[in-house]
Amino acid sequence: MKESLNSPGVQIPEELSGQVAITTLDRIYNWGRRNSLWPLMSGLACCAIEMICTAASRYDFSRFGMEVMRPSPRQADFMLISGTVTKKMVPQLVRLYNQMPEPKYVVAMGACASGGGPFKEGYSVVPGIDKFLPVDVYIPGCPRTPQALLNGLMKLQEKIDHQTLKSDAHWYKKGGSAPIPVPILGPDLIDLRKIEQIRLASQAPEPGTDEDNHEVPHE
Ligand code: SF4
Prior knowledge:
This protein is an alpha/beta fold. The chain has a domain at about 40-160: Rossmann fold, CATH 3.40.50.12280. Helix content is about 30%, strand content about 10%. It has seven helices and six strands; from the N terminus they run H-H-E-H-E-H-E-H-E-H-E-E-H. It has a four-stranded parallel beta sheet with strand order 1-2-3-4. Strand 3 (about 105-110), helix 5 (about 110-115) and strand 4 form a beta-alpha-beta unit. The longest helix is centred in the last third of the chain and has 16 residues, at about 145-160. Bound molecules: iron/sulfur cluster. Iron/sulfur cluster binds next to helix 5.
């Protein structure tokens, strides 16, 4: 513990070593956060089985202080998205993300959550949750192993280690961060952030027709 808390280059007298740590506010703040990251449980497909396995005795991610899987977004520090993200699930995931308190993170576990995976071309599948949520760590591959998930979670810890209260802690700044508009699910998924582009695309004449939607005769 003292090694991870001590600021590098600071000499502790021999007689106090093991009892005293000299550190910075950033370091102790991040040390507390990185060792008590509570995941929001969200298992969407087969990757969820690997996630469950990582929490069980063999891999045991409670070693990292992450064992308290929360069913409530209001008690979670990061969203662990494990599995295929369907269009039907996206509004729920965005709503849950908005309900999480800052600081919050997103981990995309597996090829499906990262980029659509083997179902990328499917009519019902979103090609990566990063189209809607800001992903902090991607864990590639299909299926994703518990070892890879542990490695991804350690990458998240490294990211937290490098954050500073002065420049990165936007959650303490006035106004905080704006919620992400929850997409609307109709015949297809509508991202409200792109509503102007969608409106312009719907007004553009179809290929092969003029502006009044009349067919253009072939020369
Ligand atoms: S990445 Fe592979 S193992 Fe994971 S949810 Fe997709 S298909 Fe299943």
